[in-house]
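Hi there,

I know you've been waiting on this one. I reran it after we fixed the sequence typo, so this is the corrected version. Both the input and the resulting structure follow.
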Amino acid sequence: MSTLQIGLTHTCSFFVDKKHTAIAMCSGDMEVLATPALIALMENAAMLAVANVLPEGATTVGAHIESSHLRPTPCGHKVTATATLIKIDRLKLFFNISATDDSGNIIGKGTHLRFMVNKVKFLSRL
């Protein structure tokens, strides 16, 4: 089993369809990839980068994200996000995040902070 360490990375992707558009997500009025959908894909990559090495009963939750959405992506095109763990500070996990389109253009980049939490304890506080 791997251990939690700097350099862990994960890449995930999807093809943009109508449910991912700014119109569908109420974040704009054009049929292009919505910023919230892009952010969610990058955040998912960060979560998955460490998911398999966490202690039993643990997960991570997003706490802060700083990102730019640099280029539009129309429906039918593939978007790929990569997250790399760059710093560990006790329960805080810091990631570099980026996303590209199917032409290799960088369409988004930034940083993301996640906290390791115990699932049961976290949910009991709701």
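Quick highlight: The CA atoms of residues 15 and 78 lie 4 Å apart.

Best,
R. S.
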